[in-house]
Design goal:
By secondary structure, the chain is mainly alpha-helical. The chain is built from 5 helices and no strands. The chain has helices spanning 2-34, 43-49, 55-92, 98-111, 119-128.
Length: 139
Amino acid sequence: MKKFLVGFGAFLIIAGGVGIIQHYSLVFQTFKDEQEMYSGQSLSMVLMQSTYGLDPYIKCIISGGAFIAFSLFLSEFRNRNQLTLELIQKISNAPHSDSEVIVARETNQEEFKAPQESKEDQYTSSVDEEKDGRFYWKG
């Protein structure tokens, strides 16, 4: 796919360049042939008037460059994916003992464990602090 994109992009760039050269050579040749009839116009004015016909060739050059840039992006993206896969494999194959993992899990669970109180304890402790007939839940 990458070779096709690079080849097609290079073809479009070359076709655009050849088209521009051919366009200007035809304009210059026509100007030389008709210079005797229209002696009042200068070559710079004719070349400036003919620049509007260059749009298809310029678009070919731009699209060819875009194809080549896209193929380079795909190759870099593939390299990035390969490096990420290698990193994941290295991390998963890192030497560690199972006891270390179990101890680490237990310490994490102990750190994040919330204090457990029963609902009865929560309501009874709030009843003791009741002053104006309201129940407060300590949760």
